[in-house]
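sanity check this chain:
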Amino acid sequence: MEHNWFFPPHDGIRLGDLAATLGAELADAAHADRVVRSVSPVNRAKEGDLCYILSRKFRGELATCAASAILCDRSLAALVPSHVAVLLSTRPHTAFALAGELLHGSAMRPEPMTSAVGIAPGAYVDPEARIEPGVSIEPMAVIGKGAEIGEGTHIGPGAIIGAGVRIGRNCSIAAGTTVQCALVGNNVILHPGVRVGQDGFGYAPGLKPGMIKIVQIGRVIIQDNVEIGANTTIDRGTMDDTVIGEGTKIDNQVQVGHNVRIGRHCGIVSGVGIAGSARIGDGVMIGGAAGINGHITIGDGAQIAAMSGVVADIPAGEKYGGVPARPMRDFLRDMAEIAMRSSTRVQKKGGNDE
């Protein structure tokens, strides 16, 4: 794939300088002046590209690799062809992520859609809103009464910031996002179409057939360095707050119900649904399309497999999977037994057909 105009190559970084920045070691000092300008997968890398490998499965692709440099662990360095420079790192995946940010900084968060500087014509900012210097607000954005937005924050076109909302510094609020009843920290990224602070799903049985809506008067608290993917929804609390902890990363199309509390540095993948009042500890990883029951607790550092159904508490540090979710060793044993029984039935059926 040729470089495209959406993410053009960098002007160039010397490998010697890159190694020093990443805390990596250049295997051959003679390559220190070689320059990299972009990142690429191994199989289509060309001159100026930087790649990384994590295992020996890349051996075949390396034979024809034309990259200028490859990041890898010392144990894999011998696999790299002699014409490719090697940057040695004990954490090559992490080092590659940092290198990508250096080479393609504009891809790290939503970019402005227009060239407008400051408050663009066509944006509406309530007279009682407080906007610090250095904020950019694009056309068709609406900033409500009493809202506060910190220096360096960008508000994309068509975004709506509700009355009284507070947004910290150096945030990116992308096009078409709505934020209401929320306090947002510093360096937060909300991708296009995120919905924050709408009322949660709460109803009581009616006196007649039907349901009566329960008032939702809580807030959403989003701490520093959180990133929330496109079209994810974060409901405000009923009477308490919904909280997203510092450093947590949430993928696209995730539903977080009212009063949910998510800890620091969690990773939540696309399609996850978290029901109201669930408590999720620090460092929890939740795979795609998992469902989390309400009013349960998931302990610090737990890992939940994709498409699991979590109906009860999970202890800290445990790995769970399946429906209903259970310890991973039990889940894998059950799956192996099901596979074995299925194979036996197929064999018996084949024998009967003969």
In short: The domain at 13-107 is CATH 3.40.1390.10 (Udp-n-acetylmuramoylalanyl-d-glutamate--2,6- Diaminopimelate Ligase; Chain: A, domain 1). The chain has a mean pLDDT of 94. The radius of gyration is 25 Å.
